[in-house]
Amino acid sequence: MLQPISCNGYDIFFNEDGYTRLREYLEEKNHSKVFILTDENTHQHCLSHFMANMPADFTAEVIEIEAGEIHKNIETCSQVWQVLSEMGADRKSVLINVGGGVVTDLGGFVASTFMRGIDFVNIPTSLLAMVDASVGGKTGVDLGALKNQVGVINVPDILIVDTDMLRTLPPEQMRSGLAEMLKHGLIYDENYWNAFLDLSAFQLDDLDTLIRDSIIIKNKIVMQDPREAGLRKTLNFGHTLGHAIESYFLQNPDKPTLLHGEAIAIGMILETFLSAELEGFPHEKLEQVTSVILSYFRKVEIETEDLEHIIAYLKYDKKNSHGNINFVLLKDIGSPVIDVRTDNEKILRSFAYYKIQDI
Fold first, then answer.
1. Are residues 137 and 196 in the same domain?
2. How far does the chain reach from its first CA to its final CA, in angstroms?
3. Residues 79 and 190 in one domain
4. Quick one: 295 and 195 in the same domain?
5. Greatest CA separation found in the chain?
6. What's the CATH number where 198 sits?
7. Cβ–Cβ under 8 Å, residues 103 and 168
8. Does the model's pTM come out above 0.90?
9. Which of 36, 204, 244, 275 is the most exposed place for a label (fewest CB within 10 A)?
10. Which residues contact 197 (CB under 8 A, 6 or more apart)?
11. 57: CB partners within 8 A, 6+ apart
């Protein structure tokens, strides 16, 4: 059995242990009403599995939102707030978020702001949400194509990681979560990074351990810096350029929609290149990082005319201050540096490096 992880103000439980704790929690709290937030995909594929782990007399109102990052916005929040109000939710109600990162981000924000805050529980159903989105208390929504511009930091009462949920996940969604796990190795622990160098003998049981180790890495960072004053910024490695690429592709009808992890994978290659240029990151490790990431993620065509638009999005990055664009880079694997500035010429060189890589 995977042991629980203690976080700032809440605990993370795994698999059957999580449902045992949830049943105890609901009995202890005796909420006035229980609401479950899902999207159309998790309603179809995951809700019955969740309900099968609850008591026979368990009742809840299910609220379903449309699936996809494009619906992670304040309009969807308004709809959920309205439904909660119409269904008689009060300050003693609880919202259980069963879904991927969109559901846990948006549901956490809805719960944190409805009647100035009601209880919520996160049950992430995607690998990305398990190792990243639902851990650390960041909640929020996008502002147009700009990622996570509106939100609050607030933690759930309980977080349950049920890896059985992953059996319903398409391969591309599994890879999307893998990007954040790779990032945790790069910024924190070279031994953890090395676990991903050869997954040919990989078993599903190994995944449980890797997921828990990934959560432990993120939690250690968050516990030391819950409000993102310094160390927590390292979790944004790959995200400065990755988010800009993701936002540009999201709002451009001529571009394929990139999953979060697909965009972050590109961002990590670009920012590892910048690390070699600016921080002396070893060149042979740059080649290794590039090779490993491209073994998991397809190469994405980024045209020369796209670059000025992508760079324009950098000014919206949440790490920026006083008009400066701040990068998280690496001196070595497990040795990050925050608040690094560079110029557009080096950023363009990083895209040129990505472009010449063999698929």
1. no
2. 40
3. no
4. yes
5. 63
6. 1.20.1090.10
7. no
8. yes
9. 204
10. 288, 292
11. none
Domain limit, last residue, from 153, 169, 185: 169
**Whether residue 272 sits in one domain with residue 250:** yes
10 Å CB burial of residue 229 (0-12, 13-18, 19+) is: exposed
Question: The tokens of 130 are what?
Answer: 């398990």
Answer positive or negative: Cα dihedral of 261, 232, 103, 3: positive
Domain end position, chosen among 145, 169, 193? 169
Q: What percent of the chain is helix, strand and coil (3-state, nearest 5)?
A: 55, 15, 30
Q: How many domains does the chain have?
A: 2
pLDDT tens track of the chain, all 359 residues?
A: 899 999 989 999 999 999 999 999 999 999 999 999 999 999 999 999 999 999 999 999 999 999 999 999 999 999 999 999 999 999 999 999 999 999 999 999 999 999 999 999 999 999 999 999 778 999 999 999 888 999 999 999 999 999 999 998 999 999 999 999 999 999 999 999 999 987 766 666 788 999 999 999 999 999 999 888 899 999 999 999 999 999 999 999 999 989 999 999 999 999 999 999 999 999 999 999 999 999 999 999 999 999 999 999 998 776 666 667 899 999 999 999 999 999 999 999 999 999 999 86
- Structure tokens of 343? 């110029």
Q: Are residues 149 and 179 in the same domain?
A: no
- Asked if 99 and 124 touch (Cβ cutoff 8 Å), the reply is yes
Query: Which residues does 61 contact at the CB level (< 8 Å), separation at least 6?
Result: 33, 34, 35, 36, 87
Claim to verify: residue 330 and residue 311 sit in the same structural domain = yes
DSSP 115: G
Residues 155 and 193 in one domain: no
CATH number at residue 30: 3.40.50.1970
* Beta strands 335-340 and 146-150, pairing class: unpaired
Token pair in block for residue 190: 């070279």
